[in-house]
Structures are given as C-alpha cells and as structure tokens.
Amino acid sequence: MKKAQIFGAIIASFFLSFGLTEVFNPVVHADSSKEIVFWNPFTGPDGTSMQKLVNEYNKTNPEYKVKNVSLTEADMYSKIPTIVNSKKGIPDLQIVHVERIKDYVNNGLLDNYNPYLDDFSDINKSNYVPEAWNNGAYKGKRYGVPLDIHTTFMYYNKALVKKYAPHALDDNIVTFDEIKAAGEKSQKDGITGLGLTWWKPNFLSLYGQLGGQLTKDGKNPNLNNQTSRKVLQIYKGLYDKKITSQDGQDPMQLFLTNKEIFFPEGIWMNNQIKESDVKYGVTNAAQLSDDPDKMVNWSSSHQFVLLKQPKRDKAKTEATLKFLSWVRTNSLEWAKAGQNPATLAITKDKEYRKMQQSFLLTNKTEQESLKIFNYRYNGYLADYLDRYAYDSVFGKTSISSYLNKLQNTVQDEVDAQMTD
Q: Domains in the chain and their CATH numbers?
C-alpha cells in the first residue's frame, strides 16, 4: 500500500473512532438554515434530469431552496437507518422506492405527512395515479408522496414484428403464445423471439397475471406454490425451445443489432435505446391473455418521504411540501428522463403525450394495468430473484429446489425481524 493510502486510512480511522464521520460526508448538511437537503438515488442521466428540475424550482426564488444530493442507491439505502438512528445530519427530504415504506415505518424510520396535508390540498389522491398514491399510505397515514410510477414494458423491433408476427400488435397486447409462434418462425434466420432481461419484474408480472399473491397474511411469504411453478415452467418451456435468448447472451445487444424481436425492459431505458439505429416501438409487457382488463405491467414508484427527525422543523417541512406541490405541476423534465411522473397533470401536457411511455398513463385501461407488488419484505424477495435470476430456467437447478430455497430464504429473513 502506498504511503498516501496508509496515511489516509489512519486519518479516516481516527475520525471514525471519534464519531466524526461528518467530515467525510459533507453532503449531509444544508449550506444554510434556509435550505432543504434532498437525498435521492439518481446518479445517472436521471440524476441530471432531477438536478435540472431542482434548478427550475430554485429559480422561482422560494424562501427555502433545495439542495439536490444524489447518492448511489446501495450507499443511500445503507446510510438511512444509520443516520436516522444517530439523530444527526438527517436530510429534510428523501426518495425511496415505495416497497420500502412499510418496513421503514415498522422500524421507526419515517415521519408521516398527515399534520401538514390540510394546508396542501392539491396533494391528494385525485391528483395522482391511484396505484402510486395508494401504496404511499400505510396504517391510515400518508408516508409517501409519489414522484413517478415506473414500469417494465416491452420494446419491439418493427421490421422483425412485420416479418414474424405481423398481427401480434393489432391490439397492443403481445401474448406469450404470439411470442412463441414468432420465435419458432424466426429461429431458422438466427433471430431470437424474446430477450430474457431483468428477472424480478418479468417473474412478478406473470405471477400477477396468474393471480399470485406474495403473502396471505401481510407478513409470511407465499412463494413456493403452483402459481410460481407455472411461471417458471412457462419461461423454461420457451427457453428450452430456444424462443428466448440463451444463457450467456446479452439480450440488449441482440435487440440493438436487430437479432431479437421482443425486448422487455423498463421505460427508463427508452432514452438509451433511442440513441441506437434500431427501429423500434413499445407496448405492454408480455401477457398470457389478450384481454386488456387482465393485463399486468410490473411497476414501482419513487416516493418522497420524510425521514424521522427528533425535532421536526415545521417551517422547513412546510417549505418541503411547497416543493412537492410545485413538482406535481412541473414534472415534464422528469418525463424527459424516460419516466412516467405519478401526477395526473402530466397527462394533459402535449409534449408528454407524444412520448412513447405516455400510453401507460393516458389510457385508463393501461393505467389500471400498472401493479406495484408492495410486500413489506419485498427487499428479501428482490435480493433472491436478482441473485439467482434464471437459474431454474437455464437448468442450473430444478424448479422445486429454486422455489423451496426462495421460500425458505425469505421466510428466514422475515423470522429474523423483530415482531410487530
């Protein structure tokens, strides 16, 4: 180790020993008493969009300006419990994924908005996408105000659809049967029918279509069942017939090089795909049924929350809600990042309505297809699905073993938590 590195480690150890971590984390504090410190996990292009949005707000010359602090998602989530429990340097406003709210409330990490909402009548259920708004409440109190509702849908190659599935998009719903038929035709030309992308939303979307529930009692997981087995069997059947991308292949590269017909991914990837030469369109996630009332499009939501403070500053909190109220009617910049803002006001914006992801909000049936799988212990489920992903589909383990381990892993984590 170089001398400079050793010296740095010694200095860091010294400060950590005396609890002086604030020296190494200057983003915690406001630059003045009239500043709202806003933490969020937007560090990529979406971080640039959020900074632009904050800049626009600050140009309105509010009494309290917003200080935008973007942290990597893993770093941010690891800091939250520590900083709340330390009762020092707590940000005034925080973005979290909606699925974390229940667990955060039960662990005493959040304050609720209820004492302030009477003075902000525009922050109410009639002004937001219902699925995003409803999931921001817990035990009769409002803990989250939604920024967006982000969804995994499906990109498709226009030329390949015309050649191998000419009528699949007549109703804007592509079924698994239509994907199978298209993939069987395209194999001889070396074209993949369906990309196997982020497993969690793909699994949950199909699980939801089949009527699956993540829990029956709100606590214990309900994951090792016939519904989960059917999800895995459907994907494994497509994989074994080489309808899908194969283990070791990059589904994104296949799509961008015109070697893949259908590519399920998040709406947030749209701006990246736009930069390629591929001629593409967007539609709903793959569905079992062509009945629009049975559609399920996996979704989540970034929500503004108030981390618990030992003594909340009423004036600053009210100023924070003024910012949230402003965001509700000024979300176009966030839509430009490839997101769907959760405010219904955006659906009236002409520029937004021209954006490809807008169909999910401007059409009522589409909007009702958006489903947030808001299980309190979603994090443990997500960890397993992200870690072991397509192992049973690829034949690295049996379906029975995969589901048994999934159930037991999540159950063990739940049991390790303190009882409510």
A: 33-146+300-354 (3.40.190.10), 150-297+373-415 (3.40.190.10)
